[in-house]
Amino acid sequence: MYHSKLLELVRKLDGYQLNRLEDFLQSPYFNKNETIQQLFQLVRAGMEAEASEALDKEQIFGLLFPGKKFQPARLNYLANQLFQLTEQFLKTEGISLSEEFRLLQFFTKHGLEKHYQQKDKQISQSIEAINYQDEHYFYLKFEQAKIEDQHFLSQGQRKYDPHIQTASQQLDRFYLIQKLKFYAEMLDREKKLPPSYAFTDLKLLDQLIEATQAETEDYIQLHRKLIQMLLDENHTPHYDAYLQQLEESKAVIEPTDLKRLYFYAINYCVRKIASGQNFQQNLLELYMTGLEEGFLFQNNGQLSPWTYKNIVQLALAQQQQEWAEAFIHGYAPKLPGNYQKDAFHYNLAVLYYMQKSYDEAMYYLNQVNYTNLSFKLWSREMLLKIYFEEGEEEALFSLIISFETLIRRNKTLSRKQKSSYSNFLKLTSKLLKRRVPIEKIQQEIQETAALRERKWLLEQCQKKIA
């Protein structure tokens, strides 16, 4: 039961939705089986008490049917019925204005004027209550204006009516926002993949924006600046302009969309850093905003261990050690359970390594259980650097040999990843043995394409030269 589709679905509902689902199940119009209501209560109680592991099938059956012999098929049937009712509840809760528009059309078709006027007013109030003026908002306004024009035509009046003009304007805004969103997404994807998309002439979109006076709409301004930033990434004022517009427009952006828009800026900073530009502080500030606004968290409220690691490394690179330590401790409970201990211990080791507290760093490295290959590789990499910096040559040579074996035998690493680690181990060995001039090793480090810890290796070269 714990791993069933039913529990996975119910766990996605918030407290308000769970209460609404309970009311739904108690309505005889939808459900007359009281046992299904009891099953829902058991599932909810176990879930809220975080005792889901105890919700095994036999226990649930015993609570539903005291004194009866366990019948798996009977319980599975009830669970399936509850699952289907939960889906039906979500469909009912999710009825959109499209259903209201159908009613409006029905009233128009059958000449029910009072019904039409009342429903049209209700729809207007519902649309204006929407806080997020995105493409969905303008599409709803278009649909309403279109039906209002049909209603006007049904009256047979010979006078000017603005509804067709309104419908056209709202459709333009819907089209422009959706088109600009697609344009920006294709540009962003082409930063990671070979060029493969056919783009609409941007001048045509700009002409439509100007012709429809849509440049005053926040969403359109924002996406136009986003596109400019992505088209000309060498001109950093475009980044500043986009971020400023994003900050000013937050109130009218739906949270999921806000996350998407911030990640364009995050990806931009990552590319800048990868090209050797100093954008670490910009990226760290975006991550800090993401923690405050909540868009860095996954749907289940958890923080990715990789994001957690990136934030720690950025903070340490910016000499914000106190903040990094507070972050490591404060956000560890937000990590997924299966990664929590390893991510916490590994990042504490990183903190102490940066402080040159090698004993503490090695202590926390020893606490890492390697639930994931990445933690195993990163931990060995850090241990290797500690041995090198401490002059532990015997331990270092032994670690290099075992590290090389791990890289060679692992079948999940890509060819590029293997090359990056292998080149790191090879160049570390050369630095240790010193059989060739340090200047030649330094040149090889700079010219090697796939290489882990290039900056650290160059720092060790400088220390040898000094």
Describe what this molecule looks like in 3D.
- By secondary structure, the protein is mainly alpha-helical.
- About 70% of the residues lie in helices and about 0% in strands.
- The protein contains 23 helices and no strands.
- It has helices at about 5-10, 15-25, 35-50, 55-65, 70-95, 95-110, 115-130, 135-155, 165-190, 200-210, 220-230, 235-250, 255-275, 280-295, 305-315, 320-330, 335-355, 360-365, 375-390, 395-410, 415-435, 440-445, 455-465.
- Helix 2 (about 15-25) packs antiparallel against helix 3 and helix 15 packs parallel to helix 17.
- It is flat and about 95 Å long.
Share of residues in helices: over 70%
Counting copies of identical and different chains, the oligomeric state is: single chain
- Tally of alpha and pi helices: 23
Question: What is the radius of gyration?
Answer: 30 Å
Please report the total strand number as a whole number: 0
CA distance, first residue to last residue: 65 Å
> Unreliable runs, pLDDT <50, ≥5 residues?
49-53
Look at the helices and sheets and give the structural class. mainly alpha
**Hey, roughly how much beta strand do the residues contain?**
under 5%
Instruction: Report the sheet with the most strands, covering strand number, pairing sense and barrel closure.
Output: none
Report the order of strands and helices: HHHHHHHHHHHHHHHHHHHHHHH
Anisotropy-based shape: flat
Mean pLDDT: 88
